[in-house]
Amino acid sequence: MQEMKKTIIELDSVVFGWTEGQPVLNIPELSVASGERVFLKGPSGSGKSTLLNLIAGIHTPRQGSVRVLGEAVHHQGSAWRDNFRADHIGLIFQQFNLLPYLSVLDNVMLPCLFSKRRKARATERYGSLEEAATQLLKHLGMVSDALHGRGVTRLSIGQQQRVAAARALIGSPELIIADEPTSALDSDSRNGFLDLLIGECDLSGSTLVFVSHDSSLEAHFSQIISLRDINHAEELV
Ligand SMILES: Nc1ncnc2c1ncn2[C@@H]1O[C@H](COP(=O)(O)OP(=O)(O)OP(=O)(O)O)[C@@H](O)[C@H]1O
């Protein structure tokens, strides 16, 4: 018998706008099952980052519900949402948001300072946090240990991207959210990075939601979501 996949993200009748009466998002429903590799596309300014921020509990909707891993994120206060995000969601930002005064390894281990759960999972799988960070960096293509003690400001963009991905993946969070993390790379590097990222999500059992303008990347993904198709904001204006 085929195992039923758990729903990891579920949006119901979600409305979000920065100003009352000016909705950016009106999403009647959106559902993502555990293990999916989701490609979220849409024109610039259409609300992709805003949607990611709703899923990550950085913003909350004006109306409707956002459930992640079965939890009603929209009902919770900001401290609860911060803890939930630290435990269950790995974020890769467009600008990577690495801490410039920390080394490569310390940047990768950072989420484990905020989440006992992720620290325990990383240690259980790799023996120590340093080993977890080292192995993740290797799997993601940072093969030279010589870079690991280096400050992140002295890395190439491609190397910074690998550090940001390893930081998101450490401690195997159930959900990885990536906002255009390949936009600064050439197409060979983009495809190579995506193969490594998806391979690592498979190993850690993480669901991936990935935003990009670049439709040529779609072939890597199991579910393609066009924000235009699911967002009915103009019907509310
Ligand atoms: N902090 C903010 N305050 C007010 N308006 C905002 C804020 N952030 C974004 N917006 C507006 O919300 C809309 C959606 O922005 P969003 O960043 O989600 O789009 P996007 O699809 O991710 O764009 P891009 O592909 O260019 O990154 C845009 O009209 C944008 O100007």
Automatic annotation (TrEMBL):
A Pfam family that the UniProt record links to this protein: ABC_tran
Keywords per UniProt: ATP-binding, Nucleotide-binding, Transport
GO MF entries: ATP binding
Family annotation (SUPFAM superfamilies): P-loop containing nucleoside triphosphate hydrolases
SMART domains to which the protein is assigned, alphabetical: AAA (SM00382)
InterPro entries: AAA+_ATPase (IPR003593), ABC_transporter-like_ATP-bd (IPR003439), ABC_transpr_LolD-like (IPR015854), MacB-like_ATP-bd (IPR017911), P-loop_NTPase (IPR027417)
Domain ABC transporter: 9-237
Protein name: ABC transporter ATP-binding protein
Organism of derivation: Amphritea atlantica
Lineage: Bacteria, Pseudomonadati, Pseudomonadota, Gammaproteobacteria, Oceanospirillales
